[in-house]
């Protein structure tokens, strides 16, 4: 008895406290593990997209200073939230640049580097915006090269670097960045990384500077080792630190104020963009759930009814039944499977939901529009989804090896048409359709391009759902 008692150590209060401060969060432990894999003098940029500001703070408190973000709005929100508590933070913008967002990017507090400058047009706009800021520090830019659409070719990247040095006195060329192509992502060594190293070499020769003064930003969670072996000086790592990008339930966590901001920023139209989109979640007061979408001239209305107890549903899982106007019957089954994949059907045993889709006008992209509108109508009916889906229709033109996003019909006869729908936060494809003859590598590239483009609709979907919840009197489920 006595011995037993004595073997329980009496921990003094100060010991407990110091133990607590030494407890690391999972994110901090992950950060340590990534750091232990870094070569000497390689910078780690922690990519925090889709993860909350709180996770960024955890890393900051563990001495991480450089962070990367892909979306202007998300970056701006986090930068503002953290500017007082994390004053030494250094933000990298690593998402695609849209010209109309450049002044906004430049005004972000503690912005360190824009890694994705692709054209003289971008440089000139950054120069103009940076000049206005009147800052003593030059804005750092990396010219980025990407196999997918967008990005400078190796030759262009060199020329662009020279342009920055010659013409842009408020910018400083920091180095070069690449994501690398999908095809090469598993290759060791990765030819795309060699190409980037060569871009730096050529630029250094042309500009008469030392190569080591320029950064090579390449390597992510899955290929940082390869990238470092091929000379990377800055790796951008997300998943290995923060874990899988999970669903932040935005519709319940964003304040009304935040929503306004999303609204202001959603107006964008460039050549490589979607047609004008408008959507509304909740159009009829008397139906259970409804939504309406216009993508260019394509117009889709969806009504949801249910859950209804159905004798025809034998299984424990619920069931989605789609009805659609007769001209479009050929896509009914496809829609049914895509929509079923996004609903948490296990939660609705023996129940049936009727999803009535009316394609009011067809001008390309009906499948994508129907999937998006159905999701909105389901959310409006308070049906539980795994995630807010996104969807896109693109075409690939093999002759010119180029993509067109959200094209209006009719399509050129040789065009390859691709529609995808995915649950972005689960990294899950719920629908793909590829029409036309392409090689395997082309189809992979087209698919990955379509997925990337579809993600651009995420904030619009989110905004639409938000505004419907804000305008609606609280309903009980
Ligand atoms: C998301 C992202 C990363 C991080 O990718 P992980 O695979 O999560 O490490 C790096 N670079 C860019 C440009 C990204 O968009």
From TrEMBL:
InterPro entries: Ala_racemase_N (IPR001608), ExoRNase_PH_dom1 (IPR001247), ExoRNase_PH_dom2_sf (IPR036345), PLP-binding_barrel (IPR029066), PNPase/RNase_PH_dom_sf (IPR027408), PyrdxlP_homeostasis (IPR011078), Ribosomal_Su5_D2-typ_SF (IPR020568)
GO molecular function annotations of the record: pyridoxal phosphate binding
Keywords annotated in UniProt: Pyridoxal phosphate
Membrane-spanning intervals of the chain: none
Gene Ontology cellular component annotations, sorted alphabetically: cytoplasm
Single GO biological process annotation from the record: vitamin B6 metabolic process
N6-(pyridoxal phosphate)lysine modification, residue list: 49
Family: Belongs to the pyridoxal phosphate-binding protein YggS/PROSC family.
Protein task: Pyridoxal 5'-phosphate (PLP)-binding protein, which may be involved in intracellular homeostatic regulation of pyridoxal 5'-phosphate (PLP), the active form of vitamin B6.
Alphabetized HAMAP family for the sequence: PLP_homeostasis
Name the record gives this protein: Pyridoxal phosphate homeostasis protein
Annotated gene: WBGene00092864
